[in-house]
Each structure stands twice: as C-alpha cells, then as structure tokens.
Design a protein that fits this description.
The chain is an alpha+beta fold. It folds into two domains: 105 residues, Rieske Iron-sulfur Protein; 285 residues, no CATH class. Strands 11, 12, 13, 14, 15, 16, 17, 18 and 19 form a nine-stranded antiparallel beta sheet that branches. Helix 3 crosses helix 6. The termini are far apart.
C-alpha cells in the first residue's frame, strides 16, 4: 500500500503539484482533431491537468490552445468569434491569435495590445490527436512520435472516452493482466473448441481467452526499458505450454496492451483534473497483415475502434450508455448465467471497477498481492520521477529522437527456451517481416 503522502503525490495533477509538474513535461493529448475539424469553426472547451482552456482551428487551418478566460475581464473565450486568424472575445472585442498575442483591442482609444498576452500552449497534430506541451517553454522537447507523424491521415485512428476517476486508477486497469481471468470472463468460453492453436506459436483470439480462463493466477516477469517497462503475464495452457501476454508502460501515462501477434496501439490516460480523465486510444498503423489470431471472439459495442473511419464517431468521442448513474446496466441474471460481471462489454466492465473505487482511491486501504507487481512498479517509477524533477533531475523518456514507434505489446505461446523479451520488438522475425512488407507497400 502507499502512504497518504505518496497517494496525494501520485494522484494530484494541478498547477504546482509535483506530479502535475512532471506530466506537463511530456507532449500530451489535448483533444481530438475531429473536435475542431473546421477552419474558422466554433471553439471547444478543454480541461487538462485542472486548467480550463479553449481550443480553436483558426481561419488559416492552424489549431490554437489558449486559457479559457479573456485576460481583460475574464469572460470565457469559448463564446468568442473565430475570425481573421484569431479568437475574439465578445465582451469587448479583444482578439488573440493562436500564440496568445493580443492582435486587436478595438474598445481602447489607445491600444496597449502589445503588452497583453493570453496563456497559450504549443500544439502538434499527429495521428488524429491535437497534442500539447504545457511545461516551461525552455524545457520543451521535440514531439514524441509513436509512429503517426509519417502516416497518411486515413492510416491512423484515434478516439477517446470519458472516465469519472483519477487517471492512475484508470491506467492501472491496463497494467493488470490478472483481472482478465475474472472480470472479462463469460460462460460461453467453456464451449470454445480446441482449434489446434494450443501449441507453440500464435493462438487464436478465441483460444487465448480460453487460456485466460484456464490459468487464473499468472506469474509475472518484468523487463526494465528506457521508456518504462514491459512485462509478461505467464500462464500455462490447457496442454501445458507457456503462454505470455506482454504489456508495456510508457512514461508518464501510456500503455500498450497485449495483442495477437503484437500491437503498437497506445492507450493513454490523460488527466482532466484530479477526479476525472480521458481514456485515449491511438492506433498507429495497420497491423497483422498475416492474419494471425483471426477474428475477435467478442464484440465491444461501446468501443468501436474498428469502425472509426465511418460516420459512427464523427468527432472521435465515444459516448457512454453504461455509467455509475445506471449501475452500468448490470444484469444480475446474466451475472448468474452468462458472464462473470453481468455487465455487457469489456470496456464498461473496466470502467465499472475503476470508477467504483471513488474519484481518487485511498491506497492506504489496499492490500496488494503478487499479481499487482506491474502497477506497483508503475507507481514507484512515477513517484521517483516526480521527486527527481523537483530536485532538478530531468524526466525520463522525453527526448524527441527516441524510437517510440518501436514500443509494442505481444502475445504468443512460446517455443521451449524462447525469450518473450524479443516478441514485438524490432528483433522479432515477424515484426521484421511486417516492417519490410509495410515498406514495400509504401514504396
């Protein structure tokens, strides 16, 4: 468990907090490009790290991110006019460009606009996301590219969903490979036939779930990495083989969850404030051209990432039908006869358990076990990084020229003596084939 002081340090993200200072040193998703699709279109409210901001795409097509309150008298710029490459406050007509410069002051007989500046944050559009840097300008590093910058717009997908809890407890769900043997289980898994994939190699997605159900107490092996860590949750298959699900944690709030055969999609848990967060998913490129794993055994209607190119999610914000207010529509009869949780879809199951802890869980009350090693490691790494920054040491994994696009998850049934640490890396023969094929297709 954590002490009260450690829990406060870990979860508080507002201006001037140790964790808030650390998080602001990383390029962070501010909103989706689909939320500001139109040049000269209406501005959008953004709340990030406890700060109220407003985003707009100016008439030249560039995105600005400013403080919400006009520096004159504090009226909200959300109600402003987006015109002439600036956002104009409707109270007295003062206008601000995307860098925060006051470019017009029509209400004053003698303008002093050159002395007025709205707080503005730099932005970078990549992979369907408007990213921002909110730390000191003198410490700003180049954008961390997880593989989206060189992709065509239709080759990357991004979406987000709201969660009413602190970002740490939301993120911990993605770093917990033990819960999939319980929370996400349903009885029909027992009827999955032996499809021949219980052998060294890549299991089908359906049979993978059967393995989760078969071995409910995985063993964990960790690998420290320059960006954070990777870990393998090791299970024994029904036929006695060694199955691994490999997840990654990337400073400060990125996760990469296991996929057959491997994956580079980033699950990013961005604090709105101390008590709520956005759950982003950024899919960096199409994968699995070899068709390994096959079709998904389940559908996730609340998280339709495979349909994001259609009209279902024009802005990329995923609506929620299952919330705390309606008890996540839990069906007690289904809980008894159909599924372990009685809640309809995987993501709502995750949201239920993390939100039901309360907005900010008191970790002095918890009792951790051996399967909590990954989240224990994440907490310790973030606490150390925040304290180190307060002592003048630079944060880890912020440089722009590091190979972020090479960070991947993986899932496989291992050959005897096969090292799981190779899976999903650039040294993995399957990854090399995929990269070579991708290069051919680009050429």
């Amino acid at each position: 468990m954590l002490s009260q002081e450690e829990n406060e340090l870990l979860t508080r993200v507002g201006p001037g907090t140790l964790m808030g200072n650390l998080l602001r040193r990383y390029w962070t998703p501010a909103l989706l490009c689909g939320e500001v699709p139109e040049s000269g279109g209406p501005p959008v409210r953004v709340r990030l790290f406890g700060e109220n901001l407003v985003a707009f795409r100016d008439t030249s097509g560039q995105v600005g991110l400013l403080q919400e309150n006009c520096p004159h008298r504090g009226a909200s710029l959300y109600f402003g006019r987006n015109e002439d490459c600036a956002l104009r406050c409707v109270y007295h007509g003062w206008a601000y460009d995307r860098d925060g410069n006051c470019v017009d002051m029509p209400s004053e007989p003698r303008s002093f606009a050159d002395r007025i500046k709205a707080r503005a944050y730099p932005v970078h559009e990549s992979g369907g996301v408007v990213w921002t840097y909110m730390g000191p300008r003198e410490t700003m590093t180049p954008f961390r590219d997880f593989g989206t910058d060189l992709l065509a717009a239709d080759a990357a997908m991004a979406a987000k969903q709201y969660s009413s809890c602190n970002f740490i407890q939301a993120m911990e769900g993605n770093l917990d490979s033990a819960h999939i043997s319980f929370l996400h289980q349903f009885n029909a898994i027992d009827d999955i036939p032996d499809d021949g994939s219980d052998r060294p190699g890549y299991p089908s997605n359906a049979y993978s779930m059967k393995i989760w159900r078969h071995d409910k107490s995985p063993r964990f092996e960790m690998s420290e990495e320059w960006y954070g860590y990777r870990y393998a949750a090791v299970r024994t298959t029904p036929k006695g083989h060694k199955h691994v699900r490999i997840n990654a944690f990337v400073y400060p709030f990125n996760t990469c969850v296991a996929n057959v055969p491997y994956g580079s999609s980033q699950g990013i848990f961005v604090p709105i404030d101390d008590t709520s967060c956005w759950r982003y998913l950024v899919t960096t490129h199409e994968q699995n051209r070899h068709g390994l794993g096959g079709p998904r055994f389940f559908e996730v209607p609340q998280y339709p990432y495979d349909k994001m190119r259609g009209q279902q999610l024009p802005s990329g914000i995923i609506p929620r039908a299952l919330t705390a207010e309606n008890d996540y529509c839990i069906d007690r009869e289904a809980q008894r006869t159909v599924s372990f949780s009685g809640i309809a879809d995987f993501v709502s199951q995750d949201l239920m358990v993390t939100e039901s802890m309360g907005p900010v869980y008191d970790r002095t009350q918890e009792h951790l076990g051996t399967t909590d090693v990954a989240l224990i490691r994440m907490r310790g790494m973030l606490l150390k990084a925040a304290r180190d920054l307060a002592e003048g040491k630079g944060p880890p994994a912020v440089e722009g020229d590091l190979p972020y696009a090479s960070i991947r998850s993986a899932e496989k049934i291992l050959e005897p003596e096969e090292d799981w640490r190779v899976l999903g890396t650039d040294a993995d023969p399957l990854v090399r084939k995929e990269l070579e094929l991708g290069a051919v297709l680009v050429d």
